[in-house]
């Protein structure tokens, strides 16, 4: 599409009751990011109330019409995905605006390949709109849905706001609280009488609001969804004041950070579990039990069930789950592991579920049979569940579709690591509606993490791992070797799983950084990385952790058998080099003594370096002797990597997990939040 163009959704697909919008961008530095938002507008172009403003602190509509799914890695960066159940949009809403905003003074003009794509309920792409002239704006309208003649149309907008989220919100009628003192008094009162709630304003937005003297006010919402009036009075003259944390409309339940002391006499006493795993002896038992456990919790915890099904294009509605259903298929009926059915407005949405556990691979003929059955019976989707992680351009199962069939079936994949991540985010950070729901999710998480469940996520680097390592050792691995590509794919799956696990534990966005050129085919990119592996004998990745001052780099050197975790931090815009060095060493007072510190110099390679143990008494030793300009510091930890390809105690996968955890917990957390940098 081009800017200003519009199109009727019914002309693009017959399956547009539920659609998915993806907002994407890329950054030359890998550090660009933005937050998406959605506004529901009446005929006068205004929100009915602040509850019609959906963003990171209010991601789900109570009626299921809007759900912000968060960021998903893609071949050249990340995408923010939003699902819309257009059949559930209230009748008095005429427009649905899709936007995004940057923070800390960043602008959309600094990003590349800014675009919005739209897919129907089956996942088939319908349109793409690229915004080439975003410019120096802090907020950007990507597009809007609007009603026409009983249907919905989509318009490509591409309009920006220099005033950022504040100007956007004010234009559409979101209330602005100009009384900062009253806001502070309310916040102090809440802090005295209320317990912490599950949703909080993101730190970056807090910092931006403080800098702009922006008062925030909490707005009660009519449903269980927490709604926050995040908005915005940009008064330059007003002095900066502490920004109160927003309140939620209804208290959310999360797990306590410190578990209660057990009443057991000794460690041999085992707590009773809702989902026992002791009787699981075969793969079939594990698959049957895991499917039943997951589907039952999805049905009983609406927040969790909706979070998973929205990503499959399902509508919001009454949800029921079934297991071991027999479906006709010629002379031999088929029995999918599970069936998900959702009813809304008298219509049924149905998905068949095929489950694998314990590292077992999906069988293409089995998935193909279920896809054919779903097409014949008018079902909407086939969902596969396994320990594996699906990559762009490398589907786990190739399924053929009959072009003569009018009905389309979406094939979706969900890894057990994704399931555990969503459960962690809800019960540890975002909260659920009541204590029973939190307990159910806790039991599910305990089940998934138990060694007998077989639902441990990606745990094997594959059969090519040992031959590739041997080939690197004896220098016989050649460029173009398909086994090297398989190792690169396994590495990418592992890194994505590390991001899911760490993000669930921290309650923050943790995403892999992709620095591929715009439009690069993911298979071409992986082939290039495989050739680099053959030449350098090294696997490299980068992780962006929300709220940290830099990008965490992860490198596995297969020649030396060493894992390196590192981060580069920029120096402040003002101050003196010795002051920077002393401050850095003070920040790292609790970091490991074997931490390597290296000074980064403008236009030079290889600045002064040393271990933290040596630098603690003399921080000045890290400064260059020739007055070269310092641009930053690189902090690194090294450890030996596992020998085997799996996740056992001596396995490569476990060593990667432990290396990332150690570096984050003992180094990154001490560095504080991102601040100003030299340019």
Pairing-aware structural class of the strands and helices? alpha+beta
Tell me the total number of β-strands: 25
Strand % is 15-25%
The radius of gyration is 26 Å
Average pLDDT over all residues: 82
Main sheet: strands, sense, barrel: 7 strands, antiparallel
Question: Within the largest sheet, what's the order of strands?
Answer: 19-20-21-22-25-23-24
Number of helices: 14
Give the overall shape, derived from the CA principal axes. globular
| Model regions low in confidence, pLDDT < 50 over at least 5 residues | 176-250, 675-679
Quaternary arrangement of the chains shown? single chain
Q: Percent range for helical residues? A: 25-40%
Our measurement of the CA-to-CA distance between the termini, rounded to an integer number of angstroms, reads 36 Å
Describe the structure.
The chain has 679 residues and is α+β, with helices and mostly antiparallel strands. It is built from 14 helices and 25 strands. The longest helix is centred in the last third of the chain and has 25 residues. The protein is globular, with a radius of gyration of 26 Å. The two termini are 36 Å apart. The C terminus is likely disordered.
Summary keywords:
disordered C terminus; 25% strand; 14 helices; six-stranded antiparallel beta sheet; alpha+beta; 679 residues; globular
